Amino acid sequence: MPGPLDPIGLFDSGIGGLSVLRALRTLLPLEDCVYHADTGHAPYGERDDAFVMERAQAQARELIEQRRAKLLVVACNTATAAAIHDLRATWPQVPIVGVEPALKPAAAGSRTGRVGVLATRGTLASEKFRQLQASLAGQAEFILQPCDGLAAAIESGQADETRSLCARYLAALGGLGASPGQIDTVVLGCTHYAFAMEDILRIVGPEVRVLDTGEPVARQVRRLLEQARLLAPAPAAAPAGTSPACGRLTLLTTGSIALLEAAARRWLPA
Hints:
Blueprint: E1 8-12, H1 18-27, E2 33-37, H2 49-66, E3 71-74, H3 77-90, E4 96-98, H4 103-109, E5 114-119, H5 121-125, H6 127-135, E6 141-146, H7 150-155, H8 159-173, E7 185-188, H9 197-204, E8 209-211, H10 214-227, E9 249-253, H11 257-267
Parallel strand pairs: 1-2, 1-3, 2-9, 3-4, 5-6, 5-7, 7-8
């Protein structure tokens, strides 16, 4: 059985899940974390469910059985939609947290009742997403926009391509703003897209809210660890003049470890 000193495991198809890891390490800095980027098999958003399920099972097995993860975060919208039910059935002893587009808070906070959703085709076509959208029928109108190539551009650090694709897909949503009939809330339905937040905010302007999933997932992880009494114990007080303790981070990938480490240095808090 998992214990408080065991790490939290997270996986994604690439660097996108680092946005969730960033929120997690900000909220729970004492926790050890193991992050697995399946870059060698990316992107997931344009692959079929069977492929995504197989890769999700492989990464969960590594993190739970080999790395002794006390809690697993599926830090990928596409993998959550395709595989989280099977993962929970396979490892019922481990809490498993997925990510999903923030449709509920978007609908609750929208003033115009029109919400844009940027996501991969895999996420938008999934049964899990359809059920989530159906559960909010009548609460808001959701305008769905598949963003082919955006996660890949972010993953590979193509800044110009990322800005161009953000502009194209936001324009495709239609009118953005706070006036009646306009979209006043945009949901980022892929963890990669948080790393294009600066470009997105510049395009949508100050009247439009942009929601991602990092902070809500981190809060859910904390709640589940508290509930299971699995939070890492607080260390003894640090000597004067020294930095407070911080949990260890282990990075794993099926692609280039140098590229993953560079992304972590760029996107994660020091």
